[in-house]
Write a structure and sequence with these properties.
Blueprint lengths: L6 H9 L7 H5 L14 H15 L19 H18 L5 H26 L5 E7 L6 H4 L11 E3 L5 E3 L3 E7 L1 H20 L7 H7 L3 E5 L7 H6 L15 E7 L8 H14 L5 E7 L14 H15 L10 H11 L1 E8 L4 H5 L15 E8 L1
Parallel strand pairs: 1-4, 1-6, 4-5, 6-7
Antiparallel strand pairs: 2-3, 7-9, 8-9
Helix pairs in contact: 3-4, 3-5
Length: 382
Amino acid sequence: MRVDKNTSDRCCVAWVTTVQYTHQQQQQQHSYHIMSFFSKDGTAQGVAKVRHYESLLPTEQQLYHDPYAYGMFPGSYIQYLMGPKSIQWMYRVFGLGGLIEMISVRTRWLDDQVIKARREQLHLKKEYKNGQLIILGAGYDTRGFRLLDLWNENNENIITSDNGTTASSSAFHVIEVDQPEVQEKKEQNMQWLMTKETNDSNNSNHTIAHLMESKKVSFLPVNFVTDNLQEKLTSHEQFSSSSDNKQHTTLSIITMEGVTQYIPKEATADTLKKMHNIVSVGSTLLITYVDQDCFGATTSTPPSSLSVKTQNMMQLVSKVGEPWITGFTPGHFASFLQQCGYQVQSDTTLSDYNEEYLGVVGRKLSEEEMICAERFVVANVI
């Protein structure tokens, strides 16, 4: 587990952020630039902590396993020593019971949908063997390293579609997009993990080194305030745009996880339209948003058990400097995506996966325990 100087102090601060921020700091949250969320990494570290927690559970209870999450935030050794039960207890003390499951289900859903989208692309035509996963606001996401896990003995990724079509990893690339300062931290973390992996005599795969050195997974720093996302992506050596890809044989999978609630609707629309301009028709968008009803939980209306948890969660992210400012209704979001060039295929939330994901591993939540704040959407580029 990763331990660095002052790890214990930093870990404790991270856990008690709900009481550590002053009124002056909160007053500074008054200006929102396009993609301003990506200039910070507080919630990104929080999500990494949840992925680490999930990986500390007994194998039969895990929704997924992330062997790299512990390297994405300071204090992971403290979390390891605490163990899953103590971590769950702490979330409940802060009135956030169910938050871990909401984030873990979202992670598992995205994992499944990325693999499903890739297999469906291969199923359409053999020509679609080329593909790319574009992770917008990647933060400390390790999906590019975790999901390419169907390796053969030559350390090459092979994905087989339902009709038997196969594609090697040389035909598929992952591009992580985020602010320069976040990308710098992420690359430092991955280099640290790569060194540990290389020095591990029991590990002969060297997955991180293989993927980074071959540029199968690459990092694209983008200042979302001053840079043009479309121009930055189209000039990236690993990116295949629809203009370069005349035969449209490269389909993209775009993920935008846990982002839209932190930025104005105009910023989300701008990003999605720019992506629409440069990816092929038939590409897949995997995106999450917060239900507009959650913002009603902050009114004078008597709160339900769900809305109290929602209030606690919204207060927490606000106090770490990353408040939720945007929500949609399902109908509005479908119309919003249509205007940006996408057709919704499905729109689901935690309750839709309570049995499918949590139930099968003995972690099914009661109705009172569920936080259905976020919704998960699959859409196609049209």
